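Still learning. Show one?

>
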Amino acid sequence: MVGYHFHFRLGRNDWSSSRLLSRFCGLKWSLILNNILVIISAVLVFASKLTAIYELLIVARFVLGLNSGLFAGLCPMYLNEISPVAKRGAIASVYQLVITISILVAQLLSYEKVLGSSSLWPYLLGGVILIPCVFQCLTMPFCPESPRYLLIIKKNQDGAQKSLKWLRNTDNNNEEISDMQKEAAAQEAAGSVTWKAMFTKNSLRTPLIISLMIMLAQQLCGINAIIVYSNDIFRNAGLDEFWSALGTVIIGIVNVMMTIVSLVLVDLLGRKTLLVIGFSGTTIFMTLLAVSIKFSEEYTAMGVLCIIFVIGFIISFATGPGSVPWFLVTELFKQDARPKATSLAVFTNWFANTIVMLTFLPIKFYLGYFVFIIFIVFQVLFLIFIIFKVPETKNKTIEEITALYKD
């Protein structure tokens, strides 16, 4: 798990490449071409083991970080643009579901008796990553390109209609085509969106601020500190090695299961509702966790309560804060501004992740588990922001959502 996050800290700085790739290659082929970085990373990992030049491992993780950064921008955009309005939230949430499954698999494979040994670690860091890479390269060419990209960016109406026919399994897609044509006409009349416009035009600046704030909220709630250092948290709460390891695995399983539940709820209850419920829950359970750790030395039963409160935190996070920010960003912008906004949002998300992962242990060294108070304060502030500023986008077209922020 440490290695899993290490490549993010190195490689998430490539925050505008997803915009350039999606513009010139299309989302589909950008996703396929991005796998080249996975292959390069795998080769460098095995080369590092064979040559004992461990600087190559650092380079390998950096390259894989670039790959992950690109995927973080491209996947939510692609899922959003191929989804019908009524199912957009559920389909877009699949991105977060795959992340939670990957985290669980990484937790299981990284145990010393599996692939986490001194002899097998190259297969963990360089071999396993080739499996989804090969799968995507074999299957993605048969998937359609984004119809919005084809019509709005490439002006290819026939291609967009064929793509929609494949995706919807019907020829009756005139309403969607009409919506795209209106967006294309409005975009052409307004001219291209510049980086300056993203920060100066109210119709772009306001949704951008919302996008960046919910990305910060996702990371500054302390989710990665909980997941990565869960073993340490449980041990410091008085649990032995077996129960600490078991608690970590349970966290991964619960994270996957609750993300599946969120797929069902997101288009029923709405994005904002799930964010409010989720962050309210994470605030409550982190507060209880901090209190239980504080008294764990005096009362041994507090160790079990720590596991319960961490699971409660994970359930709350997976309900909404885990998945909603990734696709809500893509819903707030039209085609021309979406790649820029997504690039900025992804950069902000993983920059915040980097800060949390680099500072959690040093701050914990000085404050102990009062460090959680910092996360609790952040969550309360972000919860207030979400209640008063974040719009509900459920069952609304992109035109209807962006109309909320017209100059």
In short: Residues 216 and 349 are 6 Å apart (CA to CA).
